[in-house]
Amino acid sequence: MSASARTSSSASSAELSGAAKLEDVTRIMDKLASDLHTINLLPHQRDELLQQLKVYGRDPTNSDPIFTKEGIEVLTRHGFNSPSLTTSRNALRCLANALLLRADTRQMFVDLRYEQKACNKLKNDNRDDEFLVSRIIFLTTYDSNVNIEKLIDQYHLAENICMNISRHARQYVTKQKKIKELDPMEDMALIETLKLMFNVTHFCPQRTAAFSPALPHILTLLTKRAVSSSKPLEPPIGSLVNSLMNIPFEQKDSLAQLFPKGALNTNVDRLHEILEKSIKVYADDELEQLVSPLLTLLRKIYENAPREVQKHMQRALLPSEADREKVLGRAESLASRLLRLSTNPTTPQVRETISSLLFDLSDNDARKFVHNVGYGFASGFLFQHNVPIPENAMEAYSLSGSEGSNARASQDSREQFAGMVNPVTGQLLDREENVEEEPMTMEEKEREAERLFVLFERLKKTGVMSVKNPAEAAYQEGRVVELDDDAKSE
């Protein structure tokens, strides 16, 4: 059959539906199964049948023979046993598609015990093989009893994943005048490898250390690749961030990679750049899904960072003196945008993670936290987490000689803030707008006093902080004066 005739046959077969489609799928599967027992197909015939099957398999309707135990076995055997790389990849595409569309087929594949061959195939320095096999193993981490620990310990899964990531980073570390334009398959394969790595480290946390060798290559890709301003966490950047979530950073070698000598802040600065671009462009639902992992990663890095890097992160993420020209959260800096998101009701995960990050940056100290972000932004988080608020928290800015905040301001600039910052809004007092108001009438003063009395009583009952109602204190000290009914407001 000529090439044009085969193309015409494939096109007409792809248009079949209903009973005709089911009949043709059954015919193809029977031929492929028979070919496994007695070779009766030429290579081009076998590949043509698999190509037709791939098209049919995109829609499970009337494609039932593909999704049976027998069908999965036929595709698996052609995919992993065929001496032809073309036939192997055609079969693996059909198999990967089947595992994606029908969850029950994943256990069927695992039951065939082809995990070792799958892990071995990851050694091939080929992006198609990397993409297909990584996706197949990735899909088996859901809805199957695959033994991930065995894949790592006996079949070298972690080692092969680290090797593939290093291959992707290779062109960024070798001396080249210009980075060549990437084949689209490069990124597709990298993304599948990173997704697989995340799932494996998530579902098998006892083996996360086996993936530490990938850390320098992930960081190379993260710092050398361009970050889009319109979609900063578009894969593979988002996938690179996610892949770092479960890698342990405590080991000496990992810390040396994260904070290289002579360029301690390189990796942190790239993450700050991605964060700033992300919170400018993503809508609330995208922030929840995409930015939450980045914020969690920053918390993890801060926890393990040397003090010099921690101070750098505080300067970058906490409000500066320039931010305090306005009420905190109203400027357009990264710190102000983070503060606004920390109270966003439509992004609960982002809101919580940002507040936790800012609290970490304040050394987990409630008084420093209030100092850094203002009582208005700090109070909700502290109350929610039952963190007592020190009695002197509202006086923090006037105590220039006390242990101050490790915020963006240095100790010297903190002394400039002393006694000049509104502890609730965080704004410099000399930058607050003077608002001309009519003096309160006696009736208005009484209503305000009643409201404050109730608020203080409620606050005292919570037990979160020790307060004394000023009205009660005034009465006990004999400072309460009875007024006549006809007393007038002065």
Describe this structure in words.
The model is unreliable at about 1-10 and about 400-420 (pLDDT under 50). The chain has about 500 residues and is mainly α. Helix 15 (about 265-280) packs antiparallel against helix 16. It is elongated and about 110 Å long. Helix content is about 60%, strand content about 0%. The chain is built from 24 helices and no strands.
Oligomer: single chain
**Cα Rg:** 32 Å
Catalogue the unreliable spans.
1-11, 398-419
The secondary-structure class comes to mainly alpha
Instruction: Assign an overall shape.
Output: elongated
How far apart the termini lie comes to 107 Å
Q: Please, how many helices?
A: 24
Secondary-structure element string:
HHHHHHHHHHHHHHHHHHHHHHHH
User: What is the residue-mean pLDDT, rounded to a whole number?
Assistant: 87
Number of strands: 0
Helix content: 55-70%
Tell me the major beta sheet.
none
| Percentage of residues in DSSP E strands | under 5%
Note the topology:
Elements (H helix, E strand, L loop, with lengths): L2 H12 L3 H20 L5 H15 L11 H13 L3 H17 L2 H8 L3 H7 L5 H14 L7 H6 L3 H17 L10 H20 L11 H10 L12 H7 L8 H7 L7 H16 L2 H21 L2 H11 L16 H8 L6 H14 L4 H8 L1 H10 L26 H7 L24 H21 L7 H7 L14
